Amino acid sequence: MTTGNLRQNLDGKRFDVVIIGGGINGAAIARECVRAHKSVLLVEQNDFGSGTTSRSTRIIHGGLRYLEYGELGLVRESLHERERLLGENGNLVRPLNFLLALPEESQRSALTVRFGLWLYRRIAPRKTVLNHHEDRRRLETLLDRGQRWSVFAYEDAQCEYPERLIIEWLLEAATLGAILRNYTEALAVERSDGVVTGVRLRDRVSGEESSVACDWVINASGPWADAVCHRSNLRIDEPLVGGVRGSHILLPTMARAPKAAVYTEGIDGRPMFVIPWAGQLMVGTTEVRDTGDPGQAAPSNDEITYLTTSFQRLFPGANYKSADIRAAFAGIRPLPHVTERTPNSVTRRHFLIEHSDEGARRMISIIGGKLTTAASLARECVRAMGVKVAEPKGYAVIAGDVVDRAMDHELMEYAHLSPDSIRAIASLFGKAAPQVFSTIEADETFRQPICPHTDHLVGEAVYAARNEYAITLADILLRRVPAALGPCWSGECTQIAAERIGGALRWSPDMFVKHVEDFEREYGRFLRTVGGFE
C-alpha cells in the first residue's frame, strides 16, 4: 500500500462511521469498527498523533494512584490492557521498572503504600519478579541525604513513541478497508430531523471542501470535542471537557542514574514522574486548568519552576540549572468538565456522550481516556453503536525483537546495515520492518543516517512517506521516525535531514524551503526552549 494516491476526493461518498480525531482513541475506534465490518472514514485536522497523544508522559500503566480514589474498576481495566499491549505491541510497549520514592513528610504512610502495591500486584493478570536491586541502589545514592526516604519497587510499562502505536493501529484499519485522512478538518456534523446524516470536510492540503454521508459520527477529537460540537451548532448547556494542562521538562541524564522510572511527590505533595525517555530524563507532570486553544498549550513559568524545584528537592546533587533544561512541552488532558474538584482528583475514566438530547442522534463524543485503555474504550464505543463485541480472551504475542538472527546476519553482511540500525528499525516498525529493510536496500542513498547522531536511516523516511501517510518533514521526524526528539537534535541536524530526505523524495528547492520552515515552526511550538520562560 502506498499513500501517495490516497487523497482522492471524498465528496458524495458514504460511510457507516466517520471518526473525527486521529489520536490514540480515534485510531483504536477505527480499528475496532473495521473489525466489526463497518465502512470507516477517519479524519484528523493535523497529523495523526500530533495532539494530546504526543504530549503525554508516554507510560502504559495500571494507575497506581487511582487506588487512592477507590477506582478499582479503572485499575483492573488498565492492568489488563497493559498486558495486552505488552503482548501485541511488544516492539513499542516495553516493561519498565518503577521506584516509588516518598519523603518522610509524605501524607502517604508506608503501610498504606505497601497495601496499595500488594493490591496492585494482586489485580494484575501477570505476576512478575522484579530485578530492581541495582536500580534501587543507584537511586538511593542520588536522593537527598538530608532526609529519610521510603523506596518501593513495582512494574508498569512504557511506550516511548505512542505516535508509532497510532500508526500501527491505523495501518491495520486501512488494510481492512478504512479510509484515513490527516490534514482534513471536520467543519460541521450535518443533521436532518435530529439525526446525523454526514460531515462537511475541508482538505487542508488542497483547500477543497466536501461532504460525506454516514450513519454514525464519533467525536474522538480529545480537547477539541467542544469545538466540534459548537461548529455543528449542537445545543450544549455546559462544556463537555474540563481541560487540564500537563507540562513536562526534558533534562540531560544524570551520571549513574537508575534505568527505572521514579514515581515521587512534587513540592506540593502531588504525584510526579522522572522517566528515562529518548536518551534524556522526562520530568512531569503538572495539572493546571486550561480552557484555551489546545493547539496553543504551553508550559507557564510557574510550571517550569515547580518541576525544576521538585526535581532538585529529589536530587539536590544533580545541580541542574534552568539552562540545562533542553525543552519543555505541554498538552491538554480532555478530562470531564467538573467545577467542584481539583484537577488531580478528576476521574481518569472515559465517558461516551450520545447527543440525542442535543439534536444529533447517532453522534457520540469521547471524553477522557488514556493511552493504556484506548482499545477497551474502542470496544465500548462500538457496542454503543449496537454492535456485539466480546471482550478478547487472549492475545497474539508479538516479540519485541522481530528480527531473527538469520535476517540480522543477512542485513549486516549484504545490506551493509549496522546492528544498531537494524535494532532501531525493528523496534520502531515491528511487523513492517522487513518491508522497511526492502525499501532501504533499493537505493544506496537510502542507507544514509538521517543525521549524524541517529541510527535511523533515510530509507525509513522514504517508507513513511510512501506507506504511512507522512506528508511533511515534521510528520517524519517527530512522529514516524522521531529522530528529532533525541537530545542531540539541532538546527544543523534539521538541515542535514532535510537535504537527505528531500533528495530521496525528490523535493524541489521551493518544497525544501517550505518543509524546513514548517518543521522548525512545529518543532518550536512543541518543544519549547527555556529561553521562552526566563
| Number of structurally distinct domains | 3
Number of helices: 15
Provide the CATH superfamily of the largest domain.
Answer: D-Amino Acid Oxidase, subunit A, domain 2
Number of DSSP strand runs:
17
| CATH fold naming of the largest domain | D-Amino Acid Oxidase, Chain A, domain 2
* Fraction in helix: 25-40%
**Rg for CA atoms:** 23 Å
* Alpha-beta classification: alpha/beta
CATH-derived architecture of the largest domain: 2-Layer Sandwich
CATH class of the largest domain: Alpha Beta
CA distance, first residue to last residue: 48 Å
Instruction: Give a quick account of the main beta sheet: strands, pairing sense, barrel closure.
Output: 9 strands, mixed
- What would you call the shape? globular
The overall average pLDDT, rounded, is 90
Residue ranges: pLDDT <50 for 5 or more in a row? Answer: 1-5
Q: What amount of the residues lies in strands?
A: 15-25%
Question: How do you describe this structure in short?
Answer:
The chain is α/β, with parallel strands linked by helices and 534 residues long.
How does this structure look, described?
This protein is α/β, with parallel strands linked by helices. The protein has three domains: 140 residues, FAD/NAD(P)-binding domain (3-Layer(bba) Sandwich); 154 residues, D-Amino Acid Oxidase, subunit A, domain 2 (D-Amino Acid Oxidase, Chain A, domain 2, 2-Layer Sandwich); 128 residues, Alpha-glycerophosphate oxidase, cap domain (Helicase, Ruva Protein, domain 3), CATH 1.10.8.870. The protein is 34% helix and 21% strand. The strands form two sheets. Strands 3, 4, 5, 10, 11, 12, 13, 14 and 15 form a nine-stranded mixed sheet that branches. Strands 1, 2, 6, 7, 8, 9, 16 and 17 form an eight-stranded mixed sheet that branches. α1 runs parallel beside α5, α1 packs across α8 and α10 crosses α11. The longest helix is centred in the last third of the chain and has 18 residues. The relative contact order is 0.15.
